[in-house]
Amino acid sequence: MNREDVAEKYGELVSDWFCVEAYIKDGDLYYRYDAADPVTEPGQITFNKITDGVSEPVQVTTVEFHEAQKGDKLK
């Protein structure tokens, strides 16, 4: 996936107010949403990954998300 693919397929998801970070790394889209309530514990933050061709996002670890931050920043 590249920027154009993300804009076409997931533009609404990335531009959503709750989406606070989004990256493309190795063709996968990684993103993080802010919780509706204030975060008080690390487990309340969820990091997600969408692989091209897969319809549902999967949760990833904090470590995997931090590696994605070395990719192409979208937001």
What radius of gyration results from the CA coordinates?
12 Å
Please, how many helices? 2
Side by side, the strands of the main sheet go 4-3-2-1-5
In one word, what is the shape? globular
Number of strands: 5
- How much of the sequence lies in strands comes to 25-35%
Helical percent range?
A: 25-40%
The end-to-end span amounts to 16 Å
Structural class: alpha+beta
The topology string of helices and strands comes to HEEEEHE
Largest sheet properties: 5 strands, antiparallel
Overall pLDDT confidence: 86
- Poorly predicted parts: none
Please, could you describe this protein's structure?
The protein is α+β, with helices and mostly antiparallel strands and 75 residues long. The chain is 27% helix and 31% strand. The protein contains 2 helices and 5 strands. The protein has helices at residues 3-15, 62-68, and strands spanning 19-25, 28-33, 47-51, 58-60, 72-73. The protein has a 5-stranded antiparallel sheet with strand order 4-3-2-1-5. The longest helix has 13 residues, at 3-15. 13% of the residues are buried.
Which labels suit this protein?
single chain, 75 residues, alpha+beta, 5-stranded antiparallel β-sheet
Question: What's the quick description here?
Answer:
By secondary structure, the chain is of the alpha+beta class. The protein has helices at residues 3-15, 62-68; strands at residues 19-25, 28-33, 47-51, 58-60, 72-73.
Layout of secondary structure:
Blueprint: H1 3-15, E1 19-25, E2 28-33, E3 47-51, E4 58-60, H2 62-68, E5 72-73
Antiparallel strand pairs: 1-2, 1-5, 2-3, 3-4
